[in-house]
Each structure stands twice: as structure tokens, then as C-alpha cells.
């Protein structure tokens, strides 16, 4: 019995089409629409083709924000992945201590982004913040509103505080899924603790670490709220990341056309980087 | 190579020995002779794996001692005991090649490279892993992976014993037979003490010189496969070994006769402890339909064809028993007399074997 004539299936997938259209396709197309026009005011517009894209690629503020963004993401990965795996190795694997540790580790993940920003904005202030006062008390001149280095350190520490727990949880889950006989065999083989990590734990963590790297890369590459609250992109433009530059352009200067072109390229870069990361790691796993 | 002696071994995973019913091992004494092939047989959760992990040193027993060739090893760590252990699922170092996997235990002990290369080549030769040495271990089939796990144990020259913890569970049936033969061959070549944990009686009976049956943390019987089959010293062993297992008929000893529901048998000279609960143990093979009346009559309930033999369900009084009948013996219908092979009709008192009915 063939039922080729029955097209009711199309009717049933309509809700999905509508949903995807409204949450992805329509907003994205609006941006595409803006990116190829110069808008002077309501009803006044001119088609400019790829002019905005060309201009954005040549814009020095966009270029420097892009380099800053890449540096920030690489530093985030370099800090948080080893930190996350390291802490996960130290957590107890079973019993109430394990549950308690997981809860404590996960708390920062539950804090809203702008609250994280506010916490660190106050915490790191050189004159009233606990952290800022402490650093200054050791004789180091630390002021994130004046020194670009201090601003970067503050943002990196804040991001590690907020997001390293995600890496810890992923790595911990990976470690817990390693069957006991692996550790037993390693003991019988006389493997050292370092060899157990190198030849059992690290290879078994590959899958979850792939996910951790991808998530942390995408999130840190799109970071906006926390640096906006803490440094507002300063001092100068030393912490003006891509999204901060974008928002200034779109909302501050109301340059909708360039901002739209900028956002599309931003989106494509993230997509491209994630794809490349994923492909490399998948190839690595298959080998 | 070593003779392994276990004495008064008790183990509790929470370290508390006061509640005997919760012990994983309840006071076990046994000697595994040097070069013997042993199967450790029993249902899941009977303490087999605990026993194995205690021999290899992965678990330290709560009480009791383990001796290798008379030398106390109870407090030695696994890597100091020179034990090879193969687990239920193949354990491999995924990032290494087969050769590196085999060399790993020796590298950890910092042996010179030429010696390592020689031992790896020898072990690979013995286990037919030669052509695979350069391959990545992760991509191989389960049987080869188990051989590598075994090889990592054998690569050390002074291995005291090989312990297998249900090593064929994940192996395809076709390859199982071949791998089991390989294991047996390795054992015969190296004359190592071998302990093989399994819950599969066929595997145990075909593999081992001596089978040790464990249940609920107790060692119920150790003996040759024949002894376990023909004279199980505990009723659990009778039920567990054989397919189908032994029949048990509740009975009583009165005036030199064994009486059970459905019949009576002479049992002169049989002594049993007073007030014990008695049962007759009968292998399904020891029961045959009789031509003449024997005083024991059973009703046919069901016949199950098994190729060259049949399993016949019988009602004997209020009891149900199973008879295993070769296909060349005709099967009577309805109600018919039964004959028991008296030397195989065993008497159990409180689950312990006390004798048979031969001398009656």
C-alpha cells in the first residue's frame, strides 16, 4: 500500500517552519536587508550593494576589535580547559562530598551575566573592592579602569570564575564515565599517576573536551555583557571586543547598514571557526 | 609461577565484619596449586570477582591472608605481585599501538629497550598478534583486544598467575571457541597458575582441571568437573551445574527406608544427623522409565525435544522432576513406573551431601 497521494505530512510540519521562520530566518533576513542599503530615515533609503561589507573590512576599529577578540578567546581556552580538567581530577568521584562539590562548582553558572559583571566591577575596584584592595596591598599597582593589562586580567579572571565550572562539570562527567577496570589494569601494569592521566584519562576525555572547547570558544567569542558592565570597552578601546564595537555602532552611532554588514560577517566568522575546530578535532578522534 | 594460598579470608566492602550476612566473602580457605587451571564458578554477586581482585591485590581483604609460594603478600600492591588480570571488557590504552600496549608494563618498570622489544615479540608470537603490532589498538576487534589485555599480563617474565574475570563475555560466539583454546594453549605452554571466573558452567567445565563453586560469599565445593557433576557436595552445586540441574525431592528416613511423596527406597546403613532436613538429589540422567513396577510411579506432563535427547517433565506425587532421556529410549505415555540409578541417588541433609543409596 503506497500513500504517495497523502500530503498531510506537509501540514504537520508547518508549525516547525513557522517557528524557525520567526526565530531565525525572518530576523536574519532583516539584517541582510539592512546590510545592503543606506538608510537615511523612515522611507528614505538607497541600495548600496556590498559597500558596507567592504567598508567594515577596511575599518581599523573593527580590525583591532577582531584581533583583540581572537586573543581573548585563545587566552580563555588556554586558561579554562587545563583549569577545568585539573579541578575535575581533584573532585571526589562518589558520595555526598561529590554532590556537594558539584553544587559548589556549579553556582557561578547560575549567576546572570550582568550580575557577574557587577560583582566583578565592585570586587576588583582598587579603592573599595576586596580583590582590588588586596592586590594593591601587595604593592602591585592594579587599576582596571586605568591600565589595559589590569582590565584584561580582570576580564579573564571573571570569565574563568564564571565559565571554568562548565569545563569542570564536563570533564568531571567524562572522568566518571571511565570504567573502573581501566584504573585497575593500570595499577597492575604499574602505571604512575601521570601515565594514568596521559594514557587513560586524557584520551577518554577527548569527546567532552571537544564540546568544552567548542562551547567556550563560541561563548567567549561572542562575549558582551560582562566586559560591558566592568570596563565598558576601556580603558581607551583596550577591551572593546567585537560585540561591544558592534553595539556602539548600531545603537550608539545608529549606523544600521554598516552594523548589519558587521553582524553578518561576525556570525559567519563564528560559524567558520566552530566548523574548523570541530573538523580538526573530529579528524583527531578518528585517527 | 606460584602456589596461591588463601586462608580465613573475609571481606566486607564497608570494612564491618560484624554482620556475617552482608559479607562479600565469608571465611574462605583454599589452595590454588602451582600450574593448575581453575575455574571460579557461581552466580553473579557470589563473591567471585571479589576473590579475584583480592588475589591480584586490587582489593585488600578485611581479614585473612594470601600467600604466594608461602610468602605473605596480603599487604602488597598489585604491581608488586606480578599478577596478570584480564577483565570482562577489554582494557586498552587507546592512543597506543598494539606493540606499545604490550610494552607498557615493562616501560613502567624501566626495563632496557632491547629486553622490552624481545619480550613484546615473544608475547606477540605466542598470541598471534605479530601482524597487528604496528596497528592502533583502538581499532581492533574484541577478541584481539582481549588478547592484547592478556599479552600485557604475560609480557612480564615473572608472572605468578593469570586471572580472568569473565573474559569471553563480549566475544562473538564463533571466535569464543578459538580464543578459549588459545587461552588453554597459553596455559599449557607457560604452566602458569590460572584462575578463570565465569558464571557459565560449560566454560568452567571444559576449561578447568578444577572447578571452585562459590555462592553468597562461600566456597561450596572445589573439585574436578566430574566430581562436581556426579557428587555435588552441596545442593546448590547440584542445582547450578547440569542442564537441567539436579532434582531434589524432600524425603524422610524411617526404619531404614527413604520415603518421599510418590515412593520409597531402601536405605540401610545410611546415617544422617538427627532433625536435619533431608532431600534426595537425582540427576535427570539417573532416572529411567522402568519395564516392571518399581513402586515409584510418575505422570508425564510435558516433553521438550532437544535434538539427540528429550527433557521430560514428570509429576511424582506432589513434586515435579525432570528426566533426561536419550531419543533411542521410547517414552511411555500417561502413568508409568520409574527406576532410579541408586549410585547416583544422593542424600542431602540440610543441603550437605551425606551419601548415596548404593549400599542399600
Automatic annotation (TrEMBL), chain A:
PANTHER family reported for this sequence: GLUCOSE IMPORT SYSTEM PERMEASE PROTEIN GLCT (PTHR43759:SF1), TREHALOSE TRANSPORT SYSTEM PERMEASE PROTEIN SUGA (PTHR43759)
Membrane topology according to the record: Multi-pass membrane protein
Protein name: Sugar ABC transporter permease
Family: Belongs to the binding-protein-dependent transport system permease family.
PROSITE patterns: ABC_TM1
Gene3D superfamilies associated with the record: MetI-like (1.10.3720.10)
One Pfam family matching this protein: BPD_transp_1
Entry-linked SUPFAM superfamilies: MetI-like (SSF161098)
UniProt xrefs under CDD domains: TM_PBP2 (cd06261)
GO annotation, biological process: transmembrane transport
GO cellular component: plasma membrane
ABC transmembrane type-1 domain mapped to chain residues: 66-277
Keywords: Membrane, Transmembrane, Transmembrane helix, Transport
Subcellular localization: Cell membrane
Entry superkingdom: Bacteria
Biological source species: Paenirhodobacter ferrireducens
Regions that span the bilayer: 9-32, 70-91, 100-123, 160-178, 207-225, 259-278
Keyword Nucleus: no
TrEMBL record, chain B:
Name recorded for this polypeptide: ABC transporter ATP-binding protein
Family annotation (Pfam families): ABC_tran
GO molecular function per UniProt: ATP binding; ATP hydrolysis activity
Entry GO terms, CC: ATP-binding cassette (ABC) transporter complex, substrate-binding subunit-containing
This protein's UniProt keywords: ATP-binding, Nucleotide-binding, Transport
Entries under SMART domains matching the protein: AAA
Family per record: Belongs to the ABC transporter superfamily.
Native species: Paenirhodobacter ferrireducens
Residues annotated as domain ABC transporter: 4-241
Amino acid at each position: 500500500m503506497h500513500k504517495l497521494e497523502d500530503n498531510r505530512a506537509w501540514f504537520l510540519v508547518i508549525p516547525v517552519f513557522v517557528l524557525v521562520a520567526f526565530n531565525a530566518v525572518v530576523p536574519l533576513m532583516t539584517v541582510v536587508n539592512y546590510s545592503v542599503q543606506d538608510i537615511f530615515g523612515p522611507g528614505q533609503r538607497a541600495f548600496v550593494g556590498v559597500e558596507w561589507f567592504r567598508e567594515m573590512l577596511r575599518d581599523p576599529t573593527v580590525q583591532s576589535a577582531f584581533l583583540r577578540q581572537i586573543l581573548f578567546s585563545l587566552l580563555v581556552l588556554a586558561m579554562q580547559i587545563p583549569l577545568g580538567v585539573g579541578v575535575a581530577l581533584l573532585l571526589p568521584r562518589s558520595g555526598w562530598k561529590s554532590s556537594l562539590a558539584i553544587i559548589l562548582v556549579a553556582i557561578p553558572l547560575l549567576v546572570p551575566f550582568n550580575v557577574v559583571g557587577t560583582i566583578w566591577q565592585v570586587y576588583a575596584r582598587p579603592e573599595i573592592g576586596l580583590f582590588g584592595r588586596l592586590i594593591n596591598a601587595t604593592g602591585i599597582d592594579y587599576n582596571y579602569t586605568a591600565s589595559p593589562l589590569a582590565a584584561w586580567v580582570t576580564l579573564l579572571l571573571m570569565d574563568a570564575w564564571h565559565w571554568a565550572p562548565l569545563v569542570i562539570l564536563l570533564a568531571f562527567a567524562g572522568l566518571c564515565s571511565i570504567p573502573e577496570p581501566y584504573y585497575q589494569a593500570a595499577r597492575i601494569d604499574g602505571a604512575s599517576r601521570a601515565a594514568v592521566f596521559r594514557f587513560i584519562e586524557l584520551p577518554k576525555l577527548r569527546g567532552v573536551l571537544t564540546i568544552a572547547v567548542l562551547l567556550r570558544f563560541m561563548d567567549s567569542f561572542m562575549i558582551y555583557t560582562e566586559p560591558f558592565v566592568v570596563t565598558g570597552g576601556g580603558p581607551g578601546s583596550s577591551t572593546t571586543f567585537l560585540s561591544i564595537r558592534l553595539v556602539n555602532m548600531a545603537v550608539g552611532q545608529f549606523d544600521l547598514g554598516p552594523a548589519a554588514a558587521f553582524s553578518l560577517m561576525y556570525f559567519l566568522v563564528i560559524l567558520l571557526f566552530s566548523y574548523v575546530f570541530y573538523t580538526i578535532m573530529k579528524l583527531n578522534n578518528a585517527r | 609461577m606460584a602456589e596461591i594460598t588463601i586462608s580465613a579470608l573475609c571481606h566486607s566492602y564497608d570494612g564491618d565484619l560484624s554482620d556475617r550476612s552482608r559479607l562479600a566473602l565469608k571465611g574462605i580457605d583454599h589452595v590454588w596449586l602451582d600450574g593448575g587451571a581453575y575455574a571460579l564458578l557461581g552466580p553473579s554477586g557470589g563473591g567471585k570477582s571479589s576473590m579475584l581482585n583480592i588475589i591480584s591485590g586490587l582489593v585488600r581483604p578485611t581479614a585473612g591472608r594470601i600467600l604466594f609460594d608461602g610468602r605473605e603478600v596480603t599487604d602488597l600492591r598489585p604491581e608488586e605481585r606480578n599478577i596478570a588480570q584480564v577483565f570482562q571488557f577489554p582494557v586498552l590504552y587507546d592512543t597506543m599501538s598494539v606493540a606499545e600496549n604490550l610494552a607498557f608494563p615493562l616501560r613502567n618498570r624501566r626495563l632496557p629497550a632491547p629486553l622490552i622489544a624481545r619480550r613484546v615479540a615473544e608475547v606477540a608470537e605466542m598470541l598471534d598478534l605479530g601482524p597487528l603490532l604496528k596497528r592502533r589498538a583502538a581499532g581492533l576487534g574484541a577478541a584481539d583486544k582481549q588478547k592484547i589485555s592478556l599479552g600485557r599480563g604475560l609480557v612480564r617474565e615473572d608472572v605468578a598467575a593469570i586471572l580472568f574475570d569473565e573474559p569471553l563475555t563480549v566475544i562473538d560466539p564463533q571466535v569464543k571457541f578459538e580464543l578459549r583454546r588459545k587461552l588453554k594453549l597459553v596455559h599449557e605452554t607457560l604452566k602458569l597458575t590460572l584462575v578463570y571466573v565465569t558464571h557459565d558452567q560449560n566454560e568452567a567445565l571444559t576449561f578447568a582441571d578444577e572447578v571452585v563453586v562459590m555462592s553468597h560469599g562461600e566456597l561450596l565445593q572445589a573439585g574436578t568437573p566430574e566430581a562436581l557433576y556426579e557428587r555435588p557436595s552441596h545442593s546448590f552445586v547440584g542445582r547450578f551445574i547440569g542442564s537441567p540441574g539436579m532434582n531434589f525431592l524432600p524425603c524422610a528416613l524411617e526404619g531404614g527406608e527413604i520415603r518421599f511423596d510418590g515412593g520409597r527406597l531402601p536405605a540401610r546403613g545410611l546415617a544422617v544427623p538427627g532433625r536435619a532436613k533431608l532431600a534426595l538429589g537425582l540427576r535427570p540422567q539417573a532416572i529411567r522409565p522402568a519395564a516392571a513396577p518399581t513402586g515409584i510411579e510418575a505422570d508425564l506432563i510435558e516433553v521438550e525435544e532437544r535434538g539427540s535427547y528429550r527433557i521430560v517433565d514428570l509429576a511424582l506425587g506432589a513434586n515435579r522432576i525432570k528426566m533426561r532421556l536419550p531419543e533411542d529410549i521410547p517414552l511411555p505415555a500417561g502413568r508409568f513406573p520409574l527406576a532410579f540409578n541408586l549410585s547416583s541417588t544422593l542424600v542431602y541433609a540440610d543441603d550437605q551431601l551425606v551419601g548415596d543409596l548404593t549400599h542399600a
